[in-house]
Amino acid sequence: MPTILVVDDSATDRLLAGGLLSENGDFDVEYAVNGSDAIVKIELHVPDLIVTDMDMPEINGLELVGVVRKAYPVVPVVLMTARGSEELALKALRAGAASYVPKRQLNPELLETVIQVYSAAREDRGRIRLMRRMSEQEVHFTIENDHELIASLVQYLKDGAAGMGICDEGDRVRTGVALQEALTNACLHGNLEVDSALREVDHRQYYDLARQRMTEAPYAQRRIHVIARYNQNSTEFCIRDEGPGFNRSSLPDPTDPTNIERPCGRGLLLMQTFMDEVKYNATGNEVTMIKRRRVRTQGSER
Amino acid sequence: MNPSKVFLASTIGDVLVVELVGVVSSLADDSINRELDSVRTRLRSGGQAKVVIDLGQVAYFGSSMLEAIRAIWNELTPHNGRLVLCNASEVGREIIQISKFDHLWPLVESRADALKLMQA
Fold it and tell me: Which of B72, B73, B98, B115 to probe the A interface (max A CBs under 10 A)?
């Protein structure tokens, strides 16, 4: 029978939530009296789902979500929110909580929400377990200079890295940022040959020229080629455009205080910071970025 | 009028609060550029010189979003305006710090803190 850990420093609310789940659902319910107690209980026995209050002393619901997402990424967390904790709840949802139920509507919404989240998590868990047993994968894409395709490709590639357990949630996001920057560079600077110097004068002019070239020869015919290689230890993304290439050393250093307000070079800086290795071919029209596996944390293999 | 995809602007006192409600993947997206232009026009016509950028709804952003914020900032500089960032996620905060934009604009925890700072 799946186990649910109910965390609340209010005994009344804790027992109410636990009662709703154990009496009407097919769940074993365990209890923790606050966030710290929850962490101890989770270490002793990892539950299938956690239901937690937001406003608690020592470790609040938001902090508990952070701990669980990091150490037990496949265990979903459902929040119980009281009036006044909406902003905190929003942060917790952004930090990875699966759902929330207002405390004044625990009956009947809590059971319904927990069943939905648990069912979805069970499917996800199966997929995650399978993906983590994949030893190697290589995918190839050739795409047009289309920002919607780029956004979808970023999503696909970063999810692939996270799915194989190469990176945690934070690094999945950082990988996405680096991919977005690299693909945008390949499109705008590589294939469409729009010069960043124009952006310093007027960003609107810069993007108008990009849009114009998306329909003009030879720019429009150029493609972005992407190869992603995933294995158990790392992910390698190779992104090549069909433009003439560029000289990286010609860009201003965006971290130099005198260049802070200039729009050039910031994307490359984010790529270099968020990936473990970034290298370019001699022409400057191909970048290879590598993200290596972090040391696996407890519970992530469940 | 189309609903905002990225920039949701509202006025609190003499401060224009711009809430980012979607990710700017590229400013080559004309609809996003139009939204950005509408915020800039509002600043120009309203003469407002104080802007709070609330990042609470976006988990992350890249250089395109930073460029958009910089474009808003450019509207403020002729009037000695002020811009404050708030509610950034952990990765969002990292991105701002890596880019050194926290040297240019204060980055605070909540919208309330940002508004307080504006009144200081």
Answer: B98
Q: Between A177, A199, A204, which is nearest B95 by CB?
A: A177
Give CA–CA dist A143/A238, Å, rounded. Answer: 14
Half-sphere exposure in the Cβ direction for A295 (13 Å, CA): 1
Look up residue A119 and give its two tokens. 């069912």
Provide the residue type at A14 as one letter. Answer: R
Q: Best of A266, A269, A271, A275 to disrupt the B interface by mutation (most B CBs within 10 Å)?
A: A266
How do the domains of chain A map onto residue ranges? 3-131, 136-292
Fill in the DSSP letter of residue A297: P
B114 chain-A contacts, CB cut-off 8 A? none
Whether ipTM tops 0.90, in short, is no
CATH top-level class of A3-131: alpha beta
Cβ separation A211–B104 shorter than 8 A: no
Q: What CATH topology corresponds to B7-119? A: Transcription Regulator spoIIAA (3.30.750)
Contacts of B83 in chain A (CB under 8 A): none
Say which CATH class A136-292 falls into: alpha beta
pLDDT digits (tens, 9 = 90+) for A224-262: 999 999 998 999 999 999 999 987 777 777 666 666 666
Q: Which of B28, B59, B100 sits opposite A211 (nearest CB)?
A: B28
Q: Strands of A136-143's sheet, edge to edge?
A: A136-143, A224-231, A234-240, A286-292, A277-280
Domain ranges within chain B, ordered by starting residue: 7-119
Q: Which residue has the tokens 């071919």?
A: A281
Maximum CA extent, chain B: 37
Q: What is the pTM of this model?
A: 0.76
Per-residue pLDDT of chain B (120 residues; tens, 9 = 90+): 456 678 999 999 999 999 998 877 777 777 888 899 899 998 988 778 899 999 988 888 888 888 899 999 989 988 889 999 999 988 899 999 998 899 999 999 999 999 999 987
